[in-house]
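User: Um, any thoughts?
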Amino acid sequence: MNMIKVLMVDDEERFRETTAKILSRKGFETLLAGSGEEALDKLSFSPDVIILDVRMGGMDGHETLQKIKEQKPDIPIIMLTGHGDLSGAKKAYSSGAFDYLAKPCDIDLLAAKINDAFHHAAPKKLPEKMVGSVMIPLDDYTEIDADSTVLEAIAALQKSIRGLVATNRLMESGHRSVIARNADGSTAGILSPRDLLHAVLPEYLSAPKPSTADSLQYSAMFWDGQFTTLAAKLADRSVRSLLSGEFLTIESSANLMEAANALITTGKRRIIVQENGKDVGIVREQELFYEIARIISSR
């Protein structure tokens, strides 16, 4: 995907340079201007979003905002105001700024505002995302030898989750499954919650029933104690024995529609993403749902 091009306009050189470097590390292409006059010159570089400080020497932010809007009315502009300068913020907003933030601003919030501004102003400019851009990297999953026991897999998953909670990354990862590896490092499969549910069910439930038993129902008394007993018996089974057959793979460069079609037609809930023959991530139903939600919200 093409990077969002951000024009950073601020007469404080240190703030301007530092913020630009951080935004670059977050994947934005940054242009710099130290004054309103320089900002107008930089419009020829076609920035997607402008970050504009209100208080600058010479042409201040409000005047610069007005002149930019005269030349490029569709460019979204995020104004940076002094802390507590509510009147300046309101004036900027009423003059056509997309949004405003108080300095010093949280860089993650600024990055989010830039993305919001770009999507709001030019949703059609965004190329359609590929599978690789929405996948969860394999590094975010727990990995274990496929011949390990389920008990060992659960212990490894619990350890990973504790680490994610400590770093506030649990919500980002959606960490619930375990990647099972063969001895040569290749992927044997994915041990998911659904696999454990299938494994805990009594075998006779999946066995063919006589026609006279089609309407057979089991009472609550019949099930009493079975879940706990059968779940405990899973502890010593190998992870490999629980893996649900062949898993789907898809290239990171594939279109999201291809991924959606594969999930729906096969009934699978996740696909392993490959790049140059190497497993690099997983795309699930959730990732496609989030992308649908993003597209709808950006209209």
About this structure: The first strand starts at residue 5 and ends at 9. Residues 166-174 have pLDDT under 50 and may be disordered. Residues 150-166 form the longest helix (17 residues).
